[in-house]
Design a protein that fits this description.
The structure is a single chain. By secondary structure, the protein is an alpha/beta fold. It contains six helices and 18 strands. It has two domains: 73 residues, Golgi alpha-mannosidase II (Immunoglobulin-like), CATH 2.60.40.1180; 208 residues, Rossmann fold, CATH 3.40.50.150. The strands form five sheets. A seven-stranded mixed β-sheet has the order 12-11-10-13-16-18-17, sandwiched between helices. Strands 1-2-3-4-5 form a five-stranded mixed β-sheet, with no helix packed on it. Strands 6-7 form a two-stranded antiparallel sheet. α1 runs parallel beside α2 and α4 runs parallel beside α5. The two termini are 30 Å apart.
């Protein structure tokens, strides 16, 4: 059984009470509109964070500068940031398990095409011997690397991209924590659309693409991303970098108002070749929603 250092203890009144290893935290959770089960127990939290008067921690000194937890079979370095984030979105845990399972289901490899003329670089990519090549996965808006690590654990080669150099370095450290420092992972800090356009021109293709675009964000050089304006371009570029025989696309979002139905509609329209499309709410614990996902399998 997997070790799990994460727990949603309680939620309500627009907040969530969570355990990350030895430390318990109270932080905002806009969708928790119900009442907590036992708010008195929350007073024992190691630290709290709120946005009532700007971004503000209370009891932050009770937290170490960094600590490590394990959840969904992945080890993470955590640290309390000025925005209340820790370096992990635990609502993605089921997606990490799914990614790892999908790649492992292919044995970490896909069959080569033709006689050595398959996509990618290196030997063993399709000489009619069934040896195949590694599944290639692109993880966009990749944050601290949970999906990257899950794909690498399954045996894939991965391209990890995030606009923030600091987050790319954080993800590299997480990969090392999981013994993956020598795996074939490309670490790139860049604007997602600029990178995707270059990949299209280069002819580099991927068997699976994972993307969790921000509601509002800035690229490596200040490029502005607004999901309601830019998602269609993202979808088109993702479609353009898929290999001839792709495995899956995985879209997730924390954008308010972006429902499961919306997610399914955009994925079905952008990737009509998908054999199956599945969506759902990402959950903290069993009943606290925190965003949506949509998986398209080819």
């Amino acid at each position: 059984m997997m070790n799990d250092d994460y727990e949603l203890i309680d939620s309500g009144d627009g907040r969530k009470f969570e355990r990350f290893g030895a430390y318990t935290l109270v932080r905002p959770c806009s969708q928790a509109m119900w009442r907590p089960r036992d708010v008195a127990a929350w007073r024992a939290a190691s630290a709290t964070f709120d946005r009532e008067d700007g971004n503000r921690w209370h009891g932050r000194s009770a937290l170490p500068k960094e600590w490590t937890i394990e959840t969904a079979g992945i080890r993470f370095k955590l640290s309390g940031t000025d925005f209340g984030h820790l370096g992990i979105f635990p609502e993605q845990r089921e997606q990490w398990k799914w990614i790892r399972g999908m790649v492992k289901g292919e044995g970490g490899k896909v069959k080569g095409e033709g006689e050595g003329k398959g996509e990618g670089e290196g030997k063993g990519e399709g000489e009619g011997k069934g040896e195949g090549r590694r599944v290639s996965v692109l993880n966009l808006f990749a944050y601290s690397g949970g999906s990257t690590i899950a794909a690498a654990q399954g045996g894939a080669e991965v391209c990890h991209l995030d606009a923030a150099k600091g987050m790319v370095q954080w993800a590299r450290e997480n990969a090392a924590l999981n013994g993956l420092q020598d795996r074939p992972i490309r670490w790139i800090a860049d604007d997602a659309h600029k990178f995707l356009r270059r990949e299209v021109r280069r002819g580099r293709r991927y068997d699976a693409v994972i993307f969790d675009p921000p509601t509002f964000g800035r690229g490596a050089n200040g490029e502005l991303y607004k999901i309601e304006r830019d998602l269609q371009e993202t979808l088109g570029l993702v479609r353009d970098v898929l290999s001839a025989k792709p495995l899956f696309v995985l879209f997730s979002s924390h954008t308010p108002g972006l429902s499961c139905r919306v997610a399914e509609n955009v994925i079905r329209q952008a990737f009509p070749a998908c054999r199956s499309v599945e969506s759902g709410e990402m959950l903290l614990g069993e009943d606290c929603p925190s965003g949506v996902y949509c998986r398209g399998v080819f």
